[in-house]
Amino acid sequence: MSTKLWADPGGFGLCGAVTSQSLVGALGTIAFRVRGGAQAGEVRVVMQGLAHHYLAFCPTALEVGQHVVVINNRGGRQVDVEPWPVPDLNLEGMPPSTGRN
Predict the structure, then answer these.
(1) What residues does 86 pair with on adjacent strands?
(2) Which of helix, strand or coil describes residue 30?
(3) Where do the domains of the chain lie?
(4) What residues contact 64, with CB distance under 8 A and at least 6 apart?
(5) In angstroms, rounded to a whole number, what is the distance separating the alpha carbons of residues 7 and 78?
(6) Distant-in-sequence, close-in-space partners of 57: CB < 8 Å, separation ≥ 6
(7) What digits encode the pLDDT tens for the residues 18-72?
(8) pLDDT higher than threshold 90 for residue 77
(9) Which residues contact 33 (CB under 8 A, 6 or more apart)?
(10) pLDDT score of 4
């Protein structure tokens, strides 16, 4: 299991770690187009409140802003991703909320 550590700016020790196991299953957003196959792009994944950027590989092309799920950690800040469908939350026609439960 690989662990990524970063320095604590306050000097109170380690402020967190991202393990390879916690990365698999994480949701992210494509930051730089993935062209598919062996041509990597870049994915932004927020873990423990911090944005992490990884080289992202996918068999199919993915556009900037598309949501993905991490399916494998290759090590060396490289991951395999797959598209993750985000439901359309079109709330037009819904009655307004009264603010009461």
Answers:
(1) none
(2) strand
(3) 24-83
(4) 30, 31, 32, 33
(5) 21
(6) 34, 37, 38, 40, 74, 78, 79, 80, 81
(7) 666 689 999 999 999 999 999 999 999 998 899 999 999 999 999 999 999 999 9
(8) yes
(9) 41, 61, 62, 63, 64
(10) 47
Q: What is the DSSP string of 32-101?
A: E-B-BTTB-EEEEEEETTEEEEEEEE-SS-B-TT-EEEEEEEEETTEEEEEE--------TTPPPP-S--
Q: What is the pTM of this model?
A: 0.69
The residues, any chain, with a CB within 8 Å of residue 37's CB and separated by 6 or more, are: 57, 59
CA–CA dist 4, 77 (Å, integer): 9
The pLDDT value given to residue 89: 72
- The domain 24-83 belongs to what CATH superfamily? Nucleic acid-binding proteins (2.40.50.140)
| Contact predicate 19/1, CB 8 Å | yes
Cβ burial of 66 (10 Å; 0-12, 13-18, 19+) is buried
Tokens at residue 35, please? 């062209």
